[in-house]
């Protein structure tokens, strides 16, 4: 049992290292997080189109898109390191000056996206609509507080 715990601990540490090491320059981190947010927004928008009636509801497509958004939800936040607040970015300085609030906001989005993913797995459009609205509110709150327009 101790060996298993040690192996899992080592695996977790080694998995975390690439997130910090992968960005040789600040602009690499900016590109990474922008790319992750772009892909998330595309798939989130597909669910939104179904939730708003702009696209026909397809439970399988909603589930597939929610799964992608859920998988990507944690990725961009590894790229908000010190020194990545200038350049081709709309990140506000508050990300770093109020890091606790930013972390809380990012975790709220991750949690809400997880609930959207669970709702999508039910195939129930009303549950998806409610979870989509809640997830959208977390996105808006972060944009309002931490993103330049």
Describe the model.
Mean pLDDT is 89; it is low at 4-20. The protein has a single domain (26-146), classed as Four Helix Bundle (Hemerythrin (Met), subunit A) (Up-down Bundle), CATH 1.20.120.10. α2 runs antiparallel to α3 (59-72), α2 packs antiparallel against α6 and α3 (59-72) packs antiparallel against α5 (99-122). It has helices at residues 2-21, 26-51, 59-72, 94-97, 99-122, 125-146. The chain is elongated. By secondary structure, the protein is an all-alpha fold.
Supply database-style keywords.
149 residues; mainly alpha; electron transfer activity; heme; iron; transport
In brief, what are we looking at here?
The protein has 149 residues and is mainly α.
Mean of residue pLDDT values = 89
Radius of gyration: 17 Å
Reported by name, the CATH topology is Four Helix Bundle (Hemerythrin (Met), subunit A)
Query: How many H/I helices?
Result: 6
CATH architecture name: Up-down Bundle
What would the principal axes of the Cα set say about the shape?
A: elongated
Strand percent estimate:
under 5%
Structural class: mainly alpha
Total strand segments:
0
CATH class: Mainly Alpha
SSE diagram, text form:
Blueprint lengths: L1 H20 L4 H26 L7 H14 L21 H4 L1 H24 L2 H22 L3
Helix pairs in contact: 2-3, 2-6, 3-5, 5-6
GO molecular function, one term: heme binding
Keywords: Electron transport, Heme, Iron, Metal-binding, Signal, Transport
Pfam family, one: Cytochrom_C_2
